[in-house]
């Protein structure tokens, strides 16, 4: 199973597909990491594809194709499914999440900035908030109570259909994957309440996905692979595909 999308790119910005370096597409990568040339990959024909340091598709007229490329060392082999992270991949929700976190701390009289949350992105909301509280030395901080308030603020203030949370091209990419017979799933370290709200705000119907796996039932979140392995089992597709 492909846990990340592979796109062709020569640098961080491209206006047409090239045949140089391929990168794993994931919101958790701090820098692009070249991988060996696969025999199959998803070829994104774009009007304008921007790969930011968070690897977000800003505008993409997507055409998913199967293409053979001579490999240097190793191949992907059969690809039957694609797992998508949510924050920073399908949804432009990382900055709104940090702003909601700032709001939570403001209510208890603690001054923080959006940058304080960056090291804890993708670790689940309890760690996201609790990590900042620990760094700031907040006494008696209750991560679960803070998480509850975080969701109230986030859903009321930030996860709105006209908020810009949806990345242009995400819907088309998922549709193209499904049209090629690939199973698609969301595997996120966020709680299900946030996953559902973000996907709705981004205009991505839940019915599009063959599985949605969230943090609620897991003790070990990213970078542990538990969520991705669970999605693999639900899809009945081995991780190798």
Entry keywords:
single chain, 241 residues, alpha/beta, Rossmann fold, 6 helices, 30% helix, metal-binding, magnesium, catalytic activity, HAD_sf, Protein SUPPRESSOR OF QUENCHING 1, chloroplastic
What are the SSEs and their pairings?
Elements: E1 5-9, E2 13-14, E3 21-25, E4 49-50, E5 81-84, H1 94-107, H2 125-136, H3 143-158, H4 170-179, E6 183-187, H5 192-201, E7 211-213, H6 226-235
Parallel strand pairs: 5-6, 6-7
Antiparallel strand pairs: 1-3, 2-4
Keywords: Carbohydrate metabolism, Magnesium, Metal-binding
InterPro entries: Beta-PGM-like, HAD-like_sf, HAD-SF_hydro_IA, HAD_sf, PGP-like_dom2
GO molecular function: catalytic activity; metal ion binding
Helix content: 25-40%
- Describe the global form: globular
Radius of gyration: 18 Å
- CATH C-level of the domain at 81-90 and 164-235: Alpha Beta
**Span of the ends, CA to CA:** 3 Å
């Amino acid at each position: 199973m492909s846990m990340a999308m592979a796109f062709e790119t020569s640098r961080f910005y491209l206006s047409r597909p090239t045949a140089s370096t391929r990168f794993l597409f994931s919101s958790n990568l701090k820098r692009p990491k070249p991988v060996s040339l696969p025999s199959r990959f998803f070829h994104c024909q774009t009007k304008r594809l921007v790969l930011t340091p968070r690897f977000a598709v800003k505008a993409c007229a997507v055409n998913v194709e199967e293409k053979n490329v001579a490999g240097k060392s190793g191949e992907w082999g059969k690809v039957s499914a694609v797992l998508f992270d949510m924050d920073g991949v399908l949804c432009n929700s990382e900055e709104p999440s940090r702003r909601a976190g700032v709001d939570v701390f403001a209510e208890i009289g603690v001054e923080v900035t959006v940058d304080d949350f960056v090291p804890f992105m993708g670790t689940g909301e309890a760690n996201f908030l609790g990590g900042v509280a620990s760094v700031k030395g907040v006494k008696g901080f209750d991560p679960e109570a803070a998480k509850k308030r975080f969701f109230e603020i986030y859903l009321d203030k930030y996860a709105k259909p006209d908020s810009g949370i949806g990345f242009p091209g995400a819907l088309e990419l998922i549709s193209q994957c499904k049209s090629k017979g690939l199973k698609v799933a969301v595997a996120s370290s966020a709680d299900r309440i946030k996953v559902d709200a973000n996907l709705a705000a981004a205009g991505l119907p839940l019915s599009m996905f063959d599985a949605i796996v969230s943090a609620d039932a897991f003790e070990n979140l990213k970078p542990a692979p538990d969520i991705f392995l669970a999605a693999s089992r639900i899809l009945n597709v081995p991780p190798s595909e």
